[in-house]
Design a protein that fits this description.
The structure is a homodimer. By secondary structure, the first copy, chain A, is α/β, with parallel strands linked by helices. Chain A contains 14 helices and 13 strands. Chain A has 2 domains: 159 residues, Rossmann fold (3-Layer(aba) Sandwich); 181 residues, Dehydroquinate synthase-like, alpha domain (Up-down Bundle). Chain A is globular and about 60 Å long.
């Protein structure tokens, strides 16, 4: 078992058999457990019983993470008469932690929050750093807050039960961490190894601690996500986040090469590693849809989409503290060509 | 002109002829000025032109501060293509600063925010301390965030043009500050005097600095507001905030006496001072509606409504750090009787 403190106020516990600690924290408090419907009847029901929490659920999937579901959850909390002393526990993947975190952050200006990530992606990425969000029709994660949970509990026993597709989802983020910041992860990569998971968590904690509100270095976590989010939006969220990030990382490595920063050798190594993912473009893909989706990327400044770029495996470019670089349509074109051909070439 | 620093990151400037400073801050940035419709064509239009900002507006009145208007503003910002570098400027009273502050806090997880309060109430109270909010059908300010503006600019020249009703609105909050924390304000009260306004601002800044997220002493600012908010809700926001707070303060002073903390002499002094307000119950008032509205008060804990109480003019009770006290229906009854009779007695 490991405990990691994430400033300003989060204690992250990862290991096995964490129930007793959670019980102690919840003892004597009214708690509402909000879980992904996929685990409601199983893991979440047992958990709610063990900590004496009321159980609510949200439908699975990225399309749940919207304004309507946020309003629905808030209404349920009002109807249950929840007050400022009520504890909110989010149990599920990144969709659940993002959505429930947002709800907890605005209900009476903020309730105490505990996250119980149950997917590899949420364990290594979504649960860390205080970002909450919902999607809008203009794009992914465009409405949200920075709001820090009091505790995160990640149960390694739960991860063992994940379907392969969910492992791939988390894997894409772990590989991304290897590409931008932790070359050791890239080299020694073995996704069965908890040590690899710890390293990915530590990488993210180091980055968000340096720059909690994403004014500078935290932007590098968006590597692979500028195209990745746009692809998810174009697919109407039929593409999983992991698949989109994997294709996004490969394409943004191509862009890094195209812009003269990354060697061809490193680029090819990136593509080889990500080949374990399907890397297929979504059925609804057209280039004009993708370009339109890029228009609402949050890194955009003065009408130009900005990308995080790498100059070698394990290192993102600083660009004098901006950690991202404006890219024109003309500069992006060869990368989009590559991405579209990649699909037909397989 | 005075400058007051409000931790963690707000600079409050109050005085006359502040335009030049605002121009310097906005220079070279895209800015959206969101103003109360009542001042859109006059003050706000001139201001927007002077700082080269795009101008949006919201309808006047407390009923505007709702989910629908929040969504409407967010959609307008998306349609205008606002990005994380866009500056949001809220110009108007407390409704405007609360609503626009909330919108700025969740758009792409937070845009830089400047408040230009144009009512006495917003100058001395609503603009200070980072609270943003919208109302729900369950009650007032039940959804919101803590989010700090970079700057607040209060122009004393604008205050001079306020209608009398707006002066009374702010007056109620200034008197409340005198009751709970700054006896000097209560004694020397002259609402034409900027010094009195400065003192009220300083009182609020001292309190929110000690307890930014309202875990303890900041609760005393809710004196008069537990009944006040419930009255506003019962009136369907036909009652102004100042009128509701004035009646709330008188009634909660009665409760403080009833619970054995405040002398009858002090209570009578409070009532005399607040008699300059109409202190009428809203037309739609019934006791059961009021009790039902109290159920969603944010200070509520374990199903009991809690009240801030005073033991003399200028001092709220600490209750071992809770700064509020559970009150049963039976204990509240004499105060509700007093409040209802007060109406018919006038």
């Amino acid at each position: 078992m490991k405990k990691i403190l994430i400033p300003p106020s989060t204690e992250y516990t990862i290991g096995r058999d964490l129930l007793k600690q959670l019980q102690e924290i919840c003892s004597g408090q009214r708690a509402i457990l909000i879980a992904d419907a996929a685990i409601k009847e199983t893991y979440a029901a047992d958990l709610a019983k063990a900590i004496d929490a009321e159980l609510l659920s949200i439908p699975s999937g990225e399309r749940t993470k919207n304004e309507e579901m946020k309003q629905n959850l808030l209404s349920q909390l009002f109807q249950l008469g929840c007050d400022k002393e009520t504890l909110i526990i989010a149990c599920g993947g990144g969709v659940t932690t993002d959505l429930v975190g947002f709800v907890a952050s605005v209900y009476m200006r903020g309730l105490s929050l505990i996250l119980i990530p149950t997917t590899l992606l949420a364990v290594v990425d979504a649960s860390i750093g205080g970002k909450t969000a919902i999607n809008t029709r203009y794009g992914k994660n465009l409405i949200g807050t920075f709001y820090h949970p009091k505790h995160i509990f990640a149960d390694l026993n739960v991860l063992k039960t994940l379907p392969e597709k969910e492992w791939f989802n988390g894997l894409a983020e772990i590989l991304k961490m290897g590409l931008i910041y932790k070359p050791a992860i890239w080299e020694s990569f073995n996704f069965q190894d908890p040590e690899c998971i710890f390293q990915a968590i530590e990488g993210k904690v180091e980055i968000v601690t340096q720059d909690p509100t994403e004014q500078s270095i935290r932007r590098i976590l968006n590597f692979g996500h500028t195209l990745g989010h746009a692809l998810e939006l174009v697919s109407d969220y039929e593409m999983s986040h992991g698949e989109a990030v994997a294709l996004g990382c490969a394409a943004e490595a191509h862009l890094s090469m195209q812009m003269g920063y990354l060697s061809q050798e490193d680029f090819e190594q990136v593509v080889r590693r990500f080949s374990q993912f399907s890397l297929e473009l979504p059925k609804k893909y057209t280039r004009s849809k993708l370009l339109s989706a890029l228009l609402h990327d949050k890194k955009k400044a003065r009408s130009q989409t900005r990308f995080v770029l790498i100059d070698k495996i394990g290192h993102a470019l600083a660009f004098e503290g901006a950690y991202c670089q404006a890219v024109t349509h003309a500069q992006l074109e060869p990368t989009l060509n590559w991405m579209e051909e990649w699909k037909s070439g397989r």
